[in-house]
Every structure is written in C-alpha cells, then in structure tokens.
Design goal:
Helices cover 59% and strands 5% of the residues. By secondary structure, it is mainly alpha-helical. The strands form three sheets. The protein has a two-stranded antiparallel sheet. Keywords: Chloride, Ion transport, Membrane, Transmembrane, Transmembrane helix, Transport.
Length: 335
C-alpha cells in the first residue's frame, strides 16, 4: 500500500504537486493538478527526477500530437518534432568529427613547431611542408623547405652549439605549451581538467553538474588538448574526446527545446554524443555504441541505440573526409 502511494506521487522540486495517473489513461494530469511540460531547473550537484521528466515529455508529446489536425502547420510541426532527434545527432556527429580533425591537425602542427617552422608556409606541419616542396628526404633532416629555429637566426653550423640551441627551443616550446594549458584550465575552465569520462558517467546516470558540459569547458578543453598533446606530455586524446563530444551534444540540445528543456531527454543526446566521441577516438562506431550502452548510460531506449550508431557513423565519416593524417584513417590515434 505504501509503495503504491509513493509511486502515485509526483514531485516538483519544491515538493509534492499532486497524485499520479488516476487510471483513466491520461498522462497529462496528476490527479487534479495539471502537469506543465515546461522546464524545471535542477540545482547544481542534484539528481534529476527521471519519472517526472519523462512524464513531462509525455505531456509535451500529447500536445504536439493534438496539433496534427491543424494542416499544414500543425502537421509540419509534428513531423519536425518527431525527426528533431535525428537532426540533433546529425549535427553532433558532424561537429564531433570536425573538432577531432581540427584538434589532431593543430596538435601535429604545434608539435612540429618545437623543431622549426615552414618558412614559406607557416601553417603547414613538417610533413606537409616537405611534401609541398617535393622533397622526399625530410625524414633524414634534409628537407630544404623546413627551417629549424637556429637556422631562423642565421646559425647553420651543425656543431654542439647548434644542437644545444635546438634542445633549448624544443624544451622551451614544450614548457610554454604545458604551462599555457595549465593556466587556461585554472583560470577559465577548471572542469576541463582530466579525461572527463568518470564525470560523464555520473551525468548520464542523472547527476547534474552545472558548467561541466558548457561552452567554456568545450573551448578551453579543445585548446588545452591541442597544447597538451603537442607539448609532449604523456596524455591521450581518447578520454577527452568523449568529454568534448558530450559538450557538443549539450550545446546543440538547447537548439531543440524537446531536449534542451528536459534533463531526461537531454541524456539521450548525450548518450549518442559519447558514442561519437569513442568513434572518432578509436575509429569504431559500433564500439562507441557499445561503450555508451554498457559503460556510460543509465537510460538507453532502443531509439537511442540507433541514433547513437548514426551519430558515431557520421562523426567517423567527417573525420575521414578531413583526413588529417593523409591516410584515410577514421580515428585520431595515428598508427
């Protein structure tokens, strides 16, 4: 009797707002109190109410379905509402693949910056600089298009002092990149530290961490990942890519009120985003779906599985189109 009563009670942040479904089949009313489909914000470090948010979504869905009769605008709106989830994960997949390619290209360029620069085309890394010069001996330090830092100061004698200067610039750039990474994270986005996967699991299970998937965290972590990887620190890109993909999913979800204003529904997009992050990290779209299903997600309906696979597949395709390694790889880990 007690459990039946508890299951019949709906909570709304400040307390009890009424009784649940009274058996008449209507999901839009909790007893004698109507449930609004509007957003109810959770506090920081709180856990969402899955049943309440899913009930709100049912109310919203019933409201949208009732507008189908208003042809053509009501019908078009209902069709858009039904397909908005696919559009959202498409955007997330495209953005995740693009960001993965940009991060990898930027990390390679800044890593080569420790050794020198392409004098004629400074935006090229060493490999592409020597390719553009049709010089095939760049691996033996004989690339004429690539200029070392001592040579930039007109010192071309290959003696001990030359090697010392090379070491000085190499270590100096490494320390500068690592220090800048720490400074950016410390000052602008403390949540950008670490891999982010443990926190992503907590968020997907229903925990609210304000700012952890925000735009500043996304920007600083993207820049910091480039700098940290280029500095030579023993860090990988795989874990942070899952965090970045979930940041993208969180940002794009606010373009769709169906997901942005409902924390439970938003986690469907975040689950697909996590799959896209694993996809671009390891080149394994199916592996990304399995990671999201088995390791990360708490709420994972069947439709989310298909959307996760679609999102992961699109992310892998975009990364391959960008082709940062010039080898048609679909992962950011160079083999």
């Amino acid at each position: 009797m007690y459990l039946d009563l508890v299951s019949a009670v709906a909570y709304d942040g400040s307390g009890i707002i009424g009784l649940n479904d009274n058996g008449d089949g209507d999901d839009d009313e909790f007893g004698d109190v109507a449930v609004s489909p509007t957003f109810s914000k959770y506090g920081d470090f709180h856990t969402i109410d899955w049943q309440r948010d899913l009930a709100r979504d049912r109310v919203r869905h019933k409201s949208v379905s009732s507008r189908r009769k208003d042809f053509p605008f009501g019908t078009l709106f209902a069709m858009w509402d039904a397909g908005s989830g696919w559009v959202c994960v498409l955007m997330v997949g495209m953005a995740a693949g693009a960001i993965a390619g940009i991060i990898d290209i930027g990390a390679r360029w800044m890593s080569d910056l420790k050794d020198g620069i392409c004098a004629d085309r400074f935006w090229l890394d060493r490999e592409h600089c020597c390719w553009s010069a049709n010089d095939s001996n760049y691996k033996d330090d004989d690339c004429s298009a690539w200029t070392s830092w001592p040579a930039m100061f007109d010192y071309n004698r290959k003696d001990l002092f030359y090697k010392t200067l090379e070491l000085f610039f190499y270590c100096g750039w490494s320390v500068l990149m690592a220090g800048l990474t720490v400074l950016l994270v410390k000052v602008f986005a403390p949540y950008a530290c670490g891999s982010g996967i443990p926190e992503i699991k907590c968020i997907l299970s229903g925990f609210v961490i304000r700012g952890y998937l925000g735009k500043w965290t996304f920007i600083i972590k993207s820049v910091g990942l480039i700098l940290a990887s280029a500095s030579g620190l023993n860090l990988g890109k795989e874990g942070p890519m899952v965090h970045l993909a979930c940041c993208i999913g969180n940002i794009f979800s606010y373009l769709f009120p169906k997901y942005g204003l409902n924390e439970a529904k938003k986690r469907e997009i975040l689950s697909a985003s996590a799959a896209a992050g694993v996809s671009v990290a390891f080149g394994a779209p199916i592996g990304g779906v399995l990671f999201s299903l088995e390791e990360a997600s708490y709420y994972f309906p069947l439709k989310t599985m298909w959307r996760s696979f679609f999102c992961a597949l699109i992310a892998g395709i975009i990364l391959r189109i960008l082709n940062p390694f010039g080898s048609d790889q679909v992962c950011i880990s160079k083999k």
